[in-house]
Every structure is written in structure tokens, then in C-alpha cells.
What we know:
By secondary structure, the protein is α+β, with helices and mostly antiparallel strands. The chain is about 25% helix and about 30% strand. It folds into four domains: about 5-80, Complement Module, domain 1 (Ribbon); about 90-140, Complement Module, domain 1, CATH 2.10.70.10; about 155-200, Complement Module, domain 1 (Ribbon); about 200-255. It contains three helices and 19 strands. Strand 17 (about 180-185) and strand 18 form a beta hairpin. Helix 2 packs antiparallel against helix 3. The N and C termini lie far apart (about 125 Å). The site of one 2-acetamido-2-deoxy-beta-D-glucopyranose has 5 residues, from strand 9. One 2-acetamido-2-deoxy-beta-D-glucopyranose (NAG) binds near residues 10 and 32.
Amino acid sequence: MDQMKPWLVPCIVIVWLFPASVDHCLNPPPVNYSILVVTTAEERFLVTYICIRGYHLVGKKELFCNKTSLEWDSPAPTCRLGHCPNPVLVNGQLNSSKLEPVSEEEVVTFKCDTDYILKGSNWSQCQKDHTWIPPLPICITGQCKSLKRPKHGHFKARDFNSGSNITFYCDVGYQLIGAQSLQCMDGKWSDEPPICEEISEATTEAPVEAEKESERNNICETVQRLMRCQKERGKTLEELKYSLEIKKLKLEEIKTIMSTEIKTVQVEDRMVASHAIPFHMKIDFSGL
Ligand SMILES: *[C@@H]1O[C@H](CO)[C@@H](O)[C@H](O)[C@H]1NC(C)=O
Ligand SMILES: *[C@@H]1O[C@H](CO)[C@@H](O)[C@H](O)[C@H]1NC(C)=O
Ligand SMILES: *[C@@H]1O[C@H](CO)[C@@H](O)[C@H](O)[C@H]1NC(C)=O
Ligand SMILES: *[C@@H]1O[C@H](CO)[C@@H](O)[C@H](O)[C@H]1NC(C)=O
Ligand SMILES: *[C@@H]1O[C@H](CO)[C@@H](O)[C@H](O)[C@H]1NC(C)=O
């Protein structure tokens, strides 16, 4: 027994801060190489395990005593060799060969394999509190998901790796809707892939035709309304002609006033002219 090295003896330190009472859970499970602190939180017993230097915790650090079942709410953690958990880097490399066990203040550097991108810090240090700071990074794939050839078109791309561009082209008679070029950035395309849409005569000319048609309809409607109105009032065509002449004269009058106004305004301030003139004038047929 005398020859046993003291640092190899499993060490359990229990610190009771509250007196034991009948209605509490059984003694908290012992954990080798740990210090145990018992407190109360929200009127429940709380056990906190702290690993000793050179060991790190695996599992839940805190256990609560369930007052109903009088049992600890989770299994006890363990304290494993190494001051911090062993760093791991999937699809990458760490510069350390003697990682097990990790000692306090040890520094590791990280590098990802080709076509992988490091997310996070490229170095980290094992802290006194058994954590790695900055947090351990991960290697993510730099490749973007492959894209399908668009219907009625094609694309040109060297590869789908980070930084690469992809350019889309449409067949004759089709137009590209969306971004023509996308760039792969850290595994994500910069935009949605475009589509090739048929260029049809109808799509370009239809709106203009429709507009003209509606304009024609409007004029017809107005004239029809005018005629109907005239009929209802029992006026003759001669009378209508006369009232239209009056209307015309009134419009001429407005025109003259407007042009003098424009001139005056222009003299005062050119900038104001465009705003000062009431352009939205409506011809009122109701007085006919
Ligand atoms: C704690 O250490 C002792 C002595 O090495 C060992 O017998 C025991 O199984 C350990 N307990 C746990 C929970 O690992
Ligand atoms: C305590 O244990 C009882 C019985 O197992 C369970 O129903 C209850 O949810 C537990 N309470 C808490 C706070 O975990
Ligand atoms: C890893 O590299 C860093 C920086 O070069 C160095 O400080 C550290 O000691 C290295 N760690 C190991 C375990 O070799
Ligand atoms: C870590 O990244 C920095 C820049 O962010 C760079 O200067 C340094 O050389 C890198 N260290 C290692 C070991 O890759
Ligand atoms: C990809 O396109 C971007 C933006 O258009 C440009 O800055 C970059 O140099 C291009 N990369 C390659 C590899 O052609």
C-alpha cells in the first residue's frame, strides 16, 4: 500500500453544504477522480461533479434529487483521463500526436482535408475549466450540390467546388429567367438556378394589344354613354353639337391659361414648372 502512487488513487471528495435529512435521495453516486458539491436549488438537492486536474467530465455535470421518487434524475457522470476531451476533427487533421491525455493549457491547431472548409478557429487551447477555447471547429464540405441541366438549355462549369462559377445558357427561342451565373461559396450556390422560358410572340405583343383594345373600348363606352345621356335628356343632335362647341371653347380657354402659367412659372423657377401644372384634367361630360 505504501508504494501506491498517490495520484493513481481514485479520489473522491464530498462537500456537504446542507445537513442530511430523512426526505432526501440516497447518497449521491461516487465518481472517481471528482469533487462533489451538494447544494440546494429551487428547494431541491443539487449535486455538482467537478473532475480533478488532468481529468475531464463525460455525462451530466449536475444531478437533481427528485423529491417524489427520492432518486437522482440522471445517472452519474464519469471523469476520464485528459484535462479536456480529446479534440476530434472529422475530415481534417490536428497537429498533435500525443493528444492522449490532453493536459491543461495544451494548444492544438486544425487543418481540413482538401475540398473541406474549416468552420471556426484554426487553433484552440485546453482551459483550466476543462473546456476548449476557442471552441473546437468542424470541417464542412466546400462542394456545392450538383445542378441539373436546365430544360431547353445547358450550363458550363469547371467543377462544383467552393469559388467555382457555373454559367447557364438557353437554347435558341428560349430566354433565361434568373441569374445567368452562380458562384459556389462554402458549399452553397450564390443564387437559385435560372430557368429557360420560351420566347413567344404573344408574351411580348399581348400587353400592347390588350392596352389598345381597352383604350378603344373606353372611347366607345364614353361615346355610347354620351349618346344615351343625350337621348334621355331629349336633346337633338344639333344641340349636342352646340354643347360640344361650348366645351371646346372652354378647353381652349384652359389651354391658354395653362400655357401662360407655364411661362410665368418657368420665369420664376424652372424646377417648379413640372410640379405646378395640373396635368390630370378630366373632360366633364355631365354638363352637356
Ligand atoms: C473507481 O476506481 C476504483 C479503483 O480503481 C475501481 O475499482 C472502480 O470500479 C472505479 N469506479 C468507477 C465507477 O469507475
Ligand atoms: C420525479 O419522479 C416522478 C416519478 O418518477 C416523475 O413523475 C416526475 O416527473 C419527476 N419530477 C421531476 C421534476 O423530474
Ligand atoms: C500545435 O501547433 C501549435 C502552433 O504551432 C503549437 O503551439 C502546439 O504546441 C502544437 N501542439 C502539439 C501538440 O504539437
Ligand atoms: C490560422 O489562421 C490564421 C489566419 O486566420 C493564419 O494566419 C494562421 O497561419 C493559421 N494557423 C495555422 C496553424 O494554420
Ligand atoms: C466567378 O465569378 C465571380 C463574380 O462574377 C468572379 O469574381 C470570380 O473571379 C469568378 N471565379 C472564377 C473561378 O471564374
